[in-house]
Specification:
The structure holds three protein chains of three kinds. In chain A, the strands form two sheets. Chain A has a six-stranded mixed beta sheet, with helices on both faces. A four-stranded antiparallel beta sheet of chain A has the order 2-1-4-5, with helices on one face. Chain A has ten helices and ten strands. The N and C termini of chain A lie far apart (43 Å). By secondary structure, chain A is of the alpha/beta class. Chain B has one domain: MetI-like (MetI-like fold, Orthogonal Bundle), CATH 1.10.3720. The model of chain B has no long low-confidence stretch (mean pLDDT 93). Chain C is built from eight helices and no strands. Chain C has one domain: Orthogonal Bundle (MetI-like fold), CATH 1.10.3720.10. By secondary structure, chain C is mainly α. The model of chain C has no long low-confidence stretch (mean pLDDT 89). The chains are: A alpha/beta, B mainly alpha, C mainly alpha.
Chain lengths: 259, 218, 217
């Protein structure tokens, strides 16, 4: 366990990101220890999604550094194809779940899950099938293995997307507003899957609007606004007794809108 | 209408129609590779390469196919390019349709939702693998439809090689009119053959389209 | 290989006449095919089958056969019964060809406009014909502008095909010059450049017209 405390699973140091003249991340520091779950909340435009996408390097950061299990994600020293190869390898260790699922519509549910292990790890068809069925079982969709995404509900799609991300046996899972695009009655089934992952000690970073869920599941909570981390604390403390005025306002407004 | 004459000339017209099909099919085949090359060049890291590909596409699309044909056939020898009429028709047809097709391909690729690209990249797939496994299979339907439209344009354009005396359908129609003095019979039969060819192409395209987009209604 | 563009300069006035003819033909055909296409579209949508079926058949026929075949039929075919000057055949042939393409566009835009607007207009008290002429057709026209522009840009390139029936447009004029100077490469390159410039200007014009049409839409 000492090893785990020495190298955090994810570490960000002074990460800055600009879109044109607008600075959306103004120097973010963050540490996620192995097996821990961190929730990031904040108003839209606060930079929380950009932060998550930067970890997966879907956004190219301008300053700072990102480390995954001690390995540097951003590598200014690597150019062109060398960087391509590096980042593809890094990304295989991170699972990303998107707000709009982004399932591959031309592949069946099972194929969605098995494509990456088959093509990237060279897993043979039979083992890939076993792995895929096992994962679909875990998200409760084994009976939909041969269905195509167009025939699934939003909640089912997102569960398949989680299975797809898990298929590469990632070290960390990144959830980018995984339930924001879902009808209210479908949110719970996705939350259940995420809770089970939490119980299995998967390291997770969750960007969410679901305060109740964030409070239930996470070990640490962060409030972001205007490209900075305004406040971070244990979820119990952050959600009930925030220290900062801005956090307080946000939570009050959010609760009012949900009531 | 003189039916017996129509029966008499139909073997000649069928033979000529086959030349039309042959020349168009070859041009489409080579045009496909030219288009794929152009699409690739347009994503090149080097600005001059991208610029050159764009300039080529713009010039081909901005000048008449007929002038391109005349330039290569009659002007080609001045730069050491001597092609027989049939080959000239195939080459000019391919380079012409290739430019249009590259735009169609690019459009189809860009029509695929960017989230697909992100999901694939986030799993660790590279640019090429993403194109191969994720983007192209989804762009295929639209691509097939656009290529179908271009194939029909190519077939209609192939009538222009009659000017450099390739004995294809339009050439034969004109010649038979001169020798039989029965324009209505000759032209309605030739038109019918063009229509048959075009509808056959449309049928093939529709089949391919359904195959490529089967996943949307499975 | 040695290039000599001096004959091109010598024959530049000849080429210019060809350019003039090409532009004039283009203008006449554009007006004819747009107005004609509009009329054909309206007739084929709002008349009885006996009237609109033959019309639709001709639209279909012009769209599924090559322009050159149509020109040859009109010129060499009909020429056996009645003597029509080549220029008339050329303009009518090209005009009918693009009239069919434009009518096809108008039919689609008229249908798309009348889907929502027809009922709204009738509910305001406009009659059937008033709705069609004051509400549907004007809107359909503006909605068709981008595609009409594309068609006209393609049409101008097709004017070069008219040289095949001996109309003295740009290509024909240069073929005359080539027959005297034996410089095909230089002349065809020049024509390509001229055509490219016309095309660039037309595309600029198209985006200007589209911006204006967008305001009216």
């Amino acid at each position: 366990m000492t090893q785990a405390t020495e190298t955090p699973m994810v570490e960000l140091k002074g990460v800055k990101k600009r879109f044109g003249n607008l600075e959306v991340l103004k120097g973010i520091d963050l540490k996620v220890d192995r097996g821990k779950i961190i929730s990031i909340i904040g108003p839209s435009g606060s930079g929380k999604s950009t932060l998550l996408r930067s970890i997966n390097y879907l956004e190219v950061i301008d300053e700072g550094s990102i480390l995954l299990d001690g390995a540097q994600v951003n590598r200014p020293d690597l150019k062109g194809l060398a960087f391509e190869r590096h980042i593809n390898h890094i990304r295989q260790n991170m699972g990303m779940v998107f707000q709009h699922f982004n399932l591959f519509p031309h592949l069946s549910t099972l194929e969605n899950v098995t494509l990456a292990p088959r093509k990237l790890k060279g897993v043979d068809a039979r083992s890939a099938r076993e792995l895929g069925m096992d994962l679909l079982e875990r998200v409760g969709l084994a009976d939909k293995a041969s269905a195509y995404p167009s025939s699934l509900s939003g909640g089912q799609k997102q569960r398949v997307a989680i299975a797809r991300a898990l298929a590469m046996r990632p070290k960390v899972m990144l959830f980018d507003e995984a339930t924001s695009a879902l009808d209210p009655e479908l949110v719970e089934e996705v939350n259940q899957v995420m809770k089970r992952l939490a119980e299995e000690h998967m390291t997770m970073l969750i960007v969410t609007h679901e305060m109740g869920f964030a409070r239930d599941v996470s070990d640490w909570a962060m409030f972001m606004d205007g490209g900075v981390v305004v406040e971070e604390n244990t979820p119990d403390r952050l959600f009930t007794h925030p220290d900062q005025e801005r956090t307080c306002n946000f939570l009050r407004k959010h609760l009012a809108s949900q009531a | 209408m003189d039916i017996s004459l129509m029966i008499e000339i139909s073997p000649l017209l069928v033979k000529a129609a086959w030349v039309t099909v042959d020349i168009s099919a070859r041009a489409l085949f080579f045009g496909f590779f030219i288009a794929a090359t152009l699409v690739t060049l347009r994503t090149s890291r080097f600005l001059p390469v991208r610029w050159l590909a764009r300039a080529y596409i713009s010039v081909v699309r901005g000048t008449p196919y007929f002038v391109q044909l005349l330039l290569v056939f009659y002007g080609g020898p001045a730069i050491g390019l001597r092609l027989d009429p049939f080959t000239c028709g195939v080459v000019v047809g391919a380079f012409n349709i290739g430019a249009y097709m590259s735009e169609a391909m690019r459009g189809a690729i860009e029509s695929v939702d960017s989230g697909q690209n992100e999901a694939s990249r986030s799993l660790g797939f590279g640019r090429l693998a993403t194109l191969q496994y994720i983007v192209l299979p989804q762009a295929a339907g639209l691509m097939i439809r656009s290529i179908g439209v271009l194939a029909i344009i190519l077939i209609k354009n192939s009538s222009l090689v009659s000017i450099i005396s390739v004995v294809e359908l339009t050439y034969q129609a004109q010649r038979l009119t001169g020798s039989t003095y029965k324009p209505l019979e000759v032209f309605s039969l030739s038109a019918l053959m063009y229509i048959v060819i075009i509808y056959a192409v449309m049928g093939i395209i529709e089949l391919l389209y359904r195959r490529a987009t089967r996943y949307t209604y499975l | 290989m040695e290039f000599d563009f001096s004959p091109v300069i010598t024959y530049f006035p000849t080429l210019l006449k060809g350019v003039g003819a090409t532009l004039l033909i283009g203008l006449v055909v554009a007006i004819m095919s747009i107005i004609g296409g509009q009329i054909v579209a309206v007739i084929s949508l709002y008349t009885r089958k006996a009237v609109n079926w033959p019309l639709r058949f001709f639209i279909w026929l012009f769209m599924t056969t090559p322009l050159l075949l149509q020109l040859y039929f009109l010129y060499f075919g009909l020429g056996q019964w009645i003597l029509i000057p080549a220029i008339v055949v050329g303009v009518l042939g090209l005009g009918f060809h693009y009239m069919a393409y434009n009518a096809d566009i108008f039919i689609a835009t008229i249908k798309s406009v009348s889907n929502g607007q027809y009922e709204a207009s009738r509910s305001l008290g406009f009659g059937h014909y008033a709705t069609i002429f004051y509400i549907v057709i004007p809107q359909a026209f503006y909605r068709a502008v981008p595609q009409l522009g594309n068609n006209m840009i393609i049409m101008v390139k097709d004017i070069s095909v008219l040289s095949a029936i001996g109309i003295a447009e740009l290509v024909y004029m240069s073929q005359y010059a080539i027959s005297v100077t034996f410089r095909p490469f230089e002349f065809y390159i020049t024509i390509a450049v001229v055509y490219y410039l016309i095309n660039v200007l037309m595309e600029a014009g198209q985006s200007w017209v589209e911006r204006r049409a967008a305001i009216r839409k």
